[in-house]
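Table S2 (text version). Query chain:
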Amino acid sequence: MELTVQQLTPDFCVAPQLAPEVMTALAGAGFKSVINNRPDFEGGPDQPTSAQMQQAAEAAGLAYRHLPVQGGYQSPEEIAAMQTLLAELPKPVLAFCRSGARSTKLFAAASQL
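Corresponding structure-token output:
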């Protein structure tokens, strides 16, 4: 699986859907935390679940959080939750969703708070 990572700040990057097997590579690349912004089964039964992603991330030594949000709308509560995660998690952080767009939008909104 090819890994496409877009750097938004020195401490924050986004990516499209990840697979559990890339967590070791992410840790090797220097990431400390992963945020999954994708609801389970949004992409159907072939999408890895948050539990599978968390197990792989933690096995690779990464902090993992699941903050599922919809693509078209993120609530003020979800934006505030993202801001809290960004403040608490070890950096650098990689967030992912289906394409990377909603993680980018959520990061931008959380950064405005």
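Notes on Table S2: The beta strands are 6-9, 12-15, 33-36, 63-66, 93-96. The chain is about 35% helix and 20% strand.
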